[in-house]
From TrEMBL:
Organism this protein belongs to: Branchiostoma lanceolatum
SMART domains: UBQ (SM00213)
UniProt protein name: IQUB protein
Annotated coiled-coil segments of the chain: 418-446
Pfam hit, one: IQUB
Gene giving rise to this polypeptide: IQUB
Ranges annotated as biased composition (Low complexity): 40-50, 63-108
GO cellular component: acrosomal vesicle; motile cilium
Ubiquitin-like domain location: 181-252
Gene3D superfamilies hit by this protein: Phosphatidylinositol 3-kinase Catalytic Subunit, Chain A, domain 1
SUPFAM superfamilies linked to this entry: Ubiquitin-like (SSF54236)
């Protein structure tokens, strides 16, 4: 009789495999003892015992009884499942000893070492013993046990749409040996584990199994069904589960805070043991146990290729021997190797043999003369005739060669001409394009004036139109009709001036906002300096950080289309910022902030609070420009903080009656008195003369840029003003090029006459841009230009020297002043002078 067997839950996600395994897969650690009685091998169709399970059977008085069990069909879903191995199943699988398919015994005995308590708690399947046949009796295949049929699913990350409180239908009759599929839901992770369990298995055995799998005490595991706790003594059959049915149970922890339930990790891969016991059949039919020691390779076996079966598609790889290759010993003898550089040469004289023969007709030998040729002597040629012929041939060759050279020269000239014509065409197109762009830009400046230069252009165009209309009226009308036309012209001029003033007001608002933003950005910008390697280093100071914070607040309070909460948040930030200093200005800002907050809470429209918000913005800008609250504003204010510095370089303007610094008074080269300030001169020009100095301002910028490129400390070019350059161009050079008489001022530039000397009005020449580029390349002017042209240029230099007689003294004064500032170090005066010259 076999002992009473206790069935354990199957491993997580495992399936049954047939016992007909290949001999090479039947390796294990445990030693199997040969029994006295032989038992027939199980057929290939019978399911093998599950991995990790140990079978125990004892013989009773030499006879065994086989328990008949009804055969059950294995479900199709169980055969399709893939095994998901766990660590405990791998250890017990390595201890089994599998026998070849052709042996006559299939009984297994436990290993000599007793199993650990943890291994006893793992799931296992018990295989029923088979009866021992009598000698001469044909062994019969045992009926597969119902416990050998396993049903499991692989845990996946898919969402199982299963009602956790669903109850399986209760069958009419249950058997203790039948199995059922149990899905365990690990709470709260929701991980699903499927096991094939016997119906006679109780909850305590399941807890023992999951305590090993989850590595937590069995007392803390709770198994519930439909939200109700199941007692430990309750079996699956008592829950109403039928054979081959499915039920879902929840597993949770009694102490989820300290001992939560973790997901079951997959088992590691199988590792072959170091020693195997193999049972080998002998000649007499007995079995012998052979101990095989496994040698671990120290190197990776190379891939030697293989072949593939054409019909079945199975691939076979070539195996390599496990014997390690012989290593050569290193000799202790020191060896040297060097290639020689000697070349051996030998001189040998060789003479090749050349055999020739001549055969003539003679007695007994006939030689045909059909291929013979008759040679006649030619006319005698003397040396003079020969050289004459060679000379004629040389002349013919030279003629053809010179013709080829002439064709090449003509081709190159033709290409140069075509290239020059193409360049002229491109230059014409470029000039035309630049002129169109300039006209378009001037039109845009007239339509949308923004700067002072734009309004000067407008006033100049207005004066030009007025002069044309006035000349037309004087030419065509007289008497009362002329006076009426002049009155109408005056009304039109007044309307145009008012339109220009409206544009000036709009531009002033926009420019004011830009200047304020530029001031804030300069104050908030980091300190920058350039290192010796050309890299720019930036550094933030507490003052720049304070200025950046004030700039952000100013931009926030001037933002439009803010909600009520956002506006209140901005006002609160502004209030906390100005409360740091207690003065009349901050008190007034806080009072206006409280007033606007009260109006916002009352629901006043934004259009009605524009004046109030403008006052807050203006007062906060005044707060930012105060050096006491913003230290970075001190270096950007035009009015110095020291009152004593205002007493230096201050002059009186007789036109506006104000005292202003010297930088506000433009000084021409022949000025002897201070005169009017810049603002008064600008107002007088807009009202009377209406001259546009934009073209001369552009020419002066180009002149200063070119003088900076020479790097010889030229000073006179930086002392000239727009009016001085206008006199030099119009009165001295007649507003045209001295070479080509080109009169478009946008294409004319002033360059040095002698490039080795400093630029001055008596050392310059007015040329076009292309002519100036060619003039800079000349080294000797007397050789390139004729005496008439040189005399003409020197005459103009004399006129310029007489008019700008004070410039040399001013330049010398500038040099001495700059040398003194370099010796004493930098000063505010020198800094201002450098700004003026720049």
């Amino acid at each position: 009789m076999a002992d009473q067997e206790e069935s354990a839950p199957a491993a997580v996600g495992e399936t049954e495999e047939p016992q007909t395994e290949p001999q090479e897969q039947a390796e294990g650690k445990a030693e199997a003892e040969q029994t006295d009685t032989e038992e027939p091998a199980q057929p290939a169709e019978a399911p093998a015992a599950e991995d990790g399970a140990e079978t125990k059977a004892e013989a009773a008085d030499g006879t065994e009884q086989q328990q008949e069990q009804p055969a059950t069909e294995q479900p199709a879903e169980t055969a399709a499942e893939q095994p998901a191995e766990t660590a405990a199943a791998e250890e017990t699988a390595a201890e089994q000893t599998a026998e070849p398919a052709d042996t006559t015994t299939a009984e297994e005995t436990p290993a000599e070492e007793p199993p650990a308590p943890e291994e006893e708690a793992k799931e296992r399947k018990v295989q029923e013993p088979t009866p021992t046949p009598e000698p001469g009796q044909i062994p019969t295949a045992p009926t597969p046990s119902r416990e050998n049929i396993s049903m499991a699913t692989v845990p996946t990350a898919e969402i199982h749409h299963v009602d956790p409180h669903a109850v399986s239908p209760v069958p009419l009759a249950t058997s203790a040996d039948a199995t059922a599929t149990v899905k365990f839901v690990l709470m709260p992770s929701g991980h699903v584990t499927t096991l094939a369990c016997a119906l006679s298995q109780n909850m305590l055995q399941l807890k023992d199994h999951f305590s090993v799998e989850l590595r937590m005490p069995a007392e803390l595991i709770l198994i519930t069904l439909n939200g109700k706790k199941i007692p430990d003594s309750t079996t699956l059959g008592e829950l109403g589960v039928g054979p081959n049915a499915t039920i879902q149970l929840e597993i949770s922890s009694a102490d989820p805070v300290n001992t939560p339930i973790k997901s079951i990790r997959p088992k590691p891969e199988y590792v072959m043991p170091d020693i195997l016991t193999v049972r080998v059949p002998q000649d007499d039919g007995k079995l012998q146990d052979v101990v095989v020691e496994i040698e671990r390779p120290t190197r990776r076996k190379p891939y030697l290729g293989g072949y593939r079966h054409k019909l079945s598609g199975v691939e076979y790889h070539h195996a390599s021997a496990q014997t390690m290759g012989r290593t050569t010993s290193v000799s202790d003898v020191q060896k040297f190797c060097r290639d020689t550089q000697t070349v051996f040469q030998k001189n040998r004289v060789q003479q090749t043999t050349n055999h020739t023969s001549t055969q003539m007709t003679k007695v007994g030998c006939y030689v045909s003369n059909m291929q013979d040729k008759l040679l006649l002597p030619g006319q005698y040629q003397s040396a003079e005739e020969y050289h004459k012929i060679r000379l004629e041939a040389v002349i013919v060759l030279q003629a053809y060669f010179r013709r080829w050279q002439a064709k090449n020269i003509v081709q190159r000239l033709r290409e140069d001409k075509a290239r020059h014509l193409e360049w002229e065409r491109q230059e014409e197109i470029r000039k035309k394009r630049e002129k169109e762009q300039r006209i378009r830009k001037e039109f845009e400046r007239r339509m949308n004036p923004k700067t002072k230069e734009d309004f000067d252009l407008l006033y100049a165009a207005l004066e030009k139109w007025r002069q044309e209309e006035l000349a037309f009226i004087d030419e065509n009308y007289s008497g009362a009709e002329r006076k009426a036309r002049l009155c109408a012209l005056l009304d039109q001029e007044t309307q145009l001036i008012s339109a220009i003033d409206r544009h000036k007001i709009d531009a002033a608002k926009e420019n004011k906002e830009k200047s304020i933003q530029h001031f804030l950005d300069q104050a908030a910008g980091p300190k920058k300096w350039r290192a010796f390697d050309g890299k720019v280093t930036e550094m933030d100071t507490p003052y720049t950080q304070r200025a950046r914070e004030l700039r952000d607040i100013y931009n926030s309070i001037n933002m439009k289309y803010l909600t009520q909460d956002e506006r209140l948040d901005v006002l609160l930030t502004l209030k906390h910022t100005v409360k740091e200093h207690n003065c009349k200005l901050t008190q007034e800002i806080i009072e206006l902030i409280d007033r606007e907050a009260d109006l916002l809470m009352r629901g006043v429209k934004d259009s009605n609070m524009e004046g109030l918000r403008k006052r807050i913005s203006t007062l906060f800008l005044q707060y930012i420009k105060t050096p006491t609250f913003n230290a970075e504003a001190a270096r950007l204010l035009k009015v110095p903080q020291d009152p004593m510095s205002l007493r230096k370089n201050i002059y009186f303007c007789p036109s506006c009656g104000n005292y202003k610094p010297s930088m506000e008074f433009p000084m021409s080269s022949n000025t002897r008195l201070v005169g009017k300030c810049r603002k008064c001169q600008k107002l007088d020009n807009d009202a009377r003369q209406r001259q546009d100095f934009s073209i001369y301002r552009t020419m002066l910028k180009q002149l200063r840029r070119s003088e900076e490129a020479y790097g010889d400390e030229s000073r006179i070019a930086f002392l000239l003003q727009e009016a001085d350059l206008q006199y030099l161009v119009e009165n001295v050079w007649n507003s045209q090029s001295i070479l080509s008489a080109w009169d478009d001022l946008y294409d004319l530039v002033l360059v040095r006459w002698d490039k080795t000397e400093e630029w001055s009005p008596w050392n310059c020449i007015l040329l076009t841009k292309e002519e100036a580029s060619a003039h800079k390349v000349l080294d000797d002017l007397e050789e390139q230009y004729g005496p008439v042209f040189i005399h003409k240029a020197q005459h103009k230099h004399t006129l310029a020297r007489n008019y700008f007689a004070r410039l040399p003294g001013m330049a010398q004064y500038m040099r001495e002043k700059l040398a003194a500032s370099k010796q004493k170090g930098p000063s505010v005066m020198g800094h201002r002078m450098a700004q003026t010259t720049a």
